[in-house]
Amino acid sequence: MKQVILGRIRQRKAAVLMIDGKLVDLFVDADLPTIGTIYRAICDRPAKGMGGFFLKTPDGSAFLRSSNAVAKNYPLIVQVNGYAENRKAIPVTHKVVFKSRYAVITPSNSGVNLSRKIRKNEVRSRLLEMAKKAMGGSNMGLILRSITEKAKLDEIALDISHLKKKAESILSKVSDGSQMILMEGDKSWDLALRDWTEEASVIRDENAFEQYGICEQINSALGLSISLGSFASMTVEETRALVAVDIDTGGDLSPAAGLKANIAAARVLPTVLRVRGVGGQIVLDVAPMMKKNRSQFENILRASFKADEINTTMVGWTAMGHYELHRKRVRVPLRELLM
């Protein structure tokens, strides 16, 4: 059974996704500029050696990675695409996108496309015809999300129409010259209703977390250790430079203990990282196992992250036998928000 529960934790609005009573995803409102926020920013100065330049925004300095030269005080429309680390500029991109439950509008690309998860030809044809009509010859690109496969055509068309009007309105505001917030990114409740598209019951109650025992699971996610069953465990420690994950067999001294612990860790690691909101460089100190078993572990790890929407790159093995990942920073770490 899947549940989306919208409530509060430690004075912050939050949304949790529960499957059979277990916490599998979590959004918590942050005080930092939210991903998706769109600014009319003002070019400040180039960042020599960094391949970009700094911008002025109402929320402080932002950094845009770009090879194009831009004159000082030139206005640009940019969008927040990550969370700023402590005392660093807000990461932004000039490739703005507009997202809704059913669609994504991409002004920098053209054409109408569908999620690859929609495979039935008759469904694809019907959706494409409707989408092209809803876009009305616009030069902006459109992507229909996988949820549209089972949605009503008139609901999708109305959603596209609203999203298109919003995009056109915001993109028309580049020429004023003053820095301004043009669109706020979605907060936790709206983000959950937009991005958790699988069928689930929705509970909206600011006291729901206490009623459903969610606070205990969130408090557990703030800890360092995760049980992997029997004796095995996994410890996740966030440092300034990287996230260290240590996999331990505990009291299990059998020959296959290391492989079993590593496989168990590989299967739950995407959920563990997602709930904790951590990203960047991740180093796995795996339990001892034979080198011939590395490929089996890596295949399971890769399959686990394939189902995760946050972009994670499998970097590979180090000379010391650690396994490295790089995960996009798209959330504020849970410990920074709640501790």
Structure notes:
This protein is an alpha+beta fold and 339 residues long. It has eight helices and 20 strands. The strands form four sheets. Strands 15-16-17-18-20-19 form a six-stranded mixed beta sheet, covered by helices on one side. A five-stranded mixed β-barrel has the order 4-5-6-8-7. A four-stranded mixed beta sheet has the order 3-2-1-14, with helices on both faces. Helix 1 crosses helix 2 (153-171).
Physical arrangement of strands within the biggest beta sheet? 15-16-17-18-20-19
- Radius of gyration over all CA atoms, rounded: 22 Å
The SSE string, one letter per element, is EEEEEEEEEEEHEHEHEHHEEEHEHEEH
* Percent in helix: 25-40%
**SS strand fraction:** 25-35%
Strand element count: 20
Low-confidence stretches: none
SSE class:
alpha+beta
Q: What's the helix count?
A: 8
* Shape category: globular
Provide the residue-averaged pLDDT: 93
Distance between the termini: 30 Å
Please outline the major beta sheet: 6 strands, mixed
Q: How would you briefly describe this protein structure?
A:
The chain has 339 residues and is α+β, with helices and mostly antiparallel strands. It is 27% helix and 32% strand.
